[in-house]
Design goal:
With 284 residues, this protein is an alpha+beta fold. It is 53% helix and 14% strand.
Amino acid sequence: MGRELFESSPEARAVFEEADSVLGFALSRLCFEGPEDVLRQTENAQPAILVTSVAHLRANAQLREARPSFVAGHSLGEYTALVAAQVLDFADALRLARERGRLMQEAGRQNPGGMVAILGLDEALVEEVCRATGTYVANLNCPGQIVVSGGKENVAQAAELARSKGARSTVPLQVSGAFHTPLMQPAVEGMARAVSELSFADPVIPIVANTTARPIESGEAVKAELLDQLCHCIQWHKSVEYMVNEGVSTFTEVGPGQVLTGLIKRISREVELVNTESKRIARS
């Protein structure tokens, strides 16, 4: 992850080198060479995704000079948004992402759980499934794609019940816990302590928050959001709808992969989509 960018862009190379220095180990080598099972561990995956996303941001001259109307990120992606909006510098955001990953991984050990994407059911039916199985809606991603989270057995029951109610398919996610549910509560105290040790500036660009799908414009509000999103649903569908309703006509996905580009296509067919990894511009 990120090797080609590292090799082709001095700005990206500087981001990876700074990350290695800040964390005190060769995160860049882990990104480029693995082993994959170690990279996938939550405490490593979260800083790795952040560093690669910021490398994409800084390697793109147009993005460095851009002044978007809003920034937003899905779950961990909110940390890249904080860097883009100058709420935190990269080093502090990286330390915080590493601690977030460690705490969430530990919470997953304390409260074993999982997540499953349910495809083809509306929100009301998925909520019925959650009530019946003791699970939680964790991500409202786009029409027809909702992620449910909870204890491992509960999630398996939810997947079975969703299929019986007409879900097109159910896809288990490769995660270490029941993210964005009360089962992550053990991570909150440690994150509150980590957040309290940093200085948060007011965003220079409004950040559309994961938990409310509304802009936050103060450093103090950002602190609260980072804690809230650990145990509450990610409102990505509503976040994109809010930005579209506010007049946003172009979305740029910054970072590895094209997941958000695909989700936004299903939320609005009228917007233009740019993806830094594929370097493609597409009409949804």
